[in-house]
Here is the input.
Amino acid sequence: MAICKLKSLLSLSKCNSALVSSSIRAFSSAQNVGFIGLGNMGSRMANNLIKAGFRLTVHDLNSDVLEMFSQMGVPTKKTPYEVSEASDVVITMLPTSAHVIDVYTGPNGLLHGGKLLRPWLLLDSSTIDPQTSRNLSATVTNYILREKKGEWEKPFKLDAPVSGSVTAAEAGTLTFMVGGSEEAFLAAKPLLFSMGKSAIYCGGAGSGSAAKICNNLALAVSMLGISEALALGQSLGVSASTLTNIFNCSSARCWSSDAYNPVPGLMEGVPSSGDYNGGFASKLMAKDLNLAVESAKLAGCKYPLTSQAQKIYTELCSVGHEAKDFSCAFRHYYSGIDEPHDQ
Here is the structure.
């Protein structure tokens, strides 16, 4: 009995492996990729796909951006539906849940053409709430492929938000947090690794979006904690440079201190060294913290640090710093001061 069961499991494992291999081969031959949302992150991700040899078709509301891609020889479309009709895979990188819903289900959206769909994979890299990701994934399961892809007859949707700055998007070193079908995730790896250095499978639909919210919550609290400590140290007569050296070789070490320091003058190549321009805008951090608060409420979890961080970034945006990198809290909330490299 045990031997028979083992043989059955081995047979099932071989079938699953064959299905995944078939799916990966199917993806490798599907070179037509649609990209919707060509902002600071999306435009750079799209450029990396072009470098990797994918044939792109793009759409954005910004006509100047479309003209730039058109001059590069990239076909542009007026609507998401037109992108869908030209693509085997469609990637979206949009600002909010409302934008994603509109691009998927609105007039001339990706799902506009009835229950037959050309793309076998819809991959959303926007940072949105998990429930919206789950709802859209459920909607996509009601569609069937116009043409069968490998062993698949139905399209898949993955939520695949990213961690990494504009610099990481340009360098192709993003980290993808992926929710949805694990088979689709494995098949999509060649695409993901054309834009990033790592891709982590988080679980079912919506889990990638949930992971991104948790990641950015931790990042916001970390940045505020480091900024608060550095500003306090300056007020107590200890330079931010000295404290940073202590943090980075002791228990306070974190990304916000050793890779993205918020004090102007201490570190080159980060937004604080360029008047907090570029990087991850405070308005986007505020948006992500709003998502975290709403998710915590739905889950019945306590969120005191999330709530306080949300208030701080909302205040920063209200006084005109919404476009500045989120590390600007050091200067514009805590009133920390610049320090030259040699201090």
In short: Residues 103 and 227 are 38 Å apart (CA to CA). The radius of gyration is 22 Å. Strands lie at 32-36, 55-59, 89-92, 116-117, 121-124, 144-145, 156-159, 162-163, 174-179, 196-203.
